[in-house]
Amino acid sequence: MSTKEKEREVTFEINEHFGVISVSANGWQRELNMVSWNGGMPKYDLRDWDKNHKSMSRGITLTKEELKTLETLILELKL
């Protein structure tokens, strides 16, 4: 592995699993988790994962404040 590849290597640790939002036809699950990326502070994370949590799609990470703002926006939608 080259130095550039090592620099781009992403590490993660799922610190807490909150739940599954949906499951796709290929078995990947869209989940809300608390994830620490590259040894950083854990953040709320929404993305698709394979069943073994070895591979993932692109997703979004949110701080607690951002998640609270999103909660407010969702509640205002009156679904």
Would you give an account of this structure?
The structure is a single chain. The chain has 79 residues and is α+β, with helices and mostly antiparallel strands. 24% of the residues lie in helices and 39% in strands. The protein contains two helices and four strands; from the N terminus they run H-E-E-E-E-H. The longest helix has 13 residues, at 64-76.
Question: What topology does this entry show?
Answer:
Blueprint: H1 3-8, E1 12-23, E2 29-37, E3 43-49, E4 60-62, H2 64-76
Antiparallel strand pairs: 1-2, 2-3, 3-4
List its traits:
single chain; 79 residues; alpha+beta; Transcriptional Co-activator pc4, Chain A; 4-stranded antiparallel β-sheet; 2 helices; 4 strands
Order of helices and strands: HEEEEH
Structural class, by secondary structure, is: alpha+beta
CATH topology: Transcriptional Co-activator pc4, Chain A
Mean pLDDT over all positions: 93
Over all CA atoms, what is the radius of gyration?
Answer: 15 Å
The number of distinct structural domains comes to: 1
Principal-axis shape: globular
Largest β sheet strand count, sense and barrel closure: 4 strands, antiparallel
How are the strands of the largest sheet arranged? 1-2-3-4
* Alpha plus pi helix count: 2
Q: What proportion of the residues is helical, as a percent range?
A: 10-25%
**What is the correct CATH architecture?**
Roll
Tell me what portion of residues adopts beta-strand conformation.
35-45%
CATH class: Mainly Beta
Spans where pLDDT lies below 50 across 5 or more residues: none
Provide a concise account of the structure shown:
With 79 residues, the protein is of the alpha+beta class. 24% of the residues lie in helices and 39% in strands.
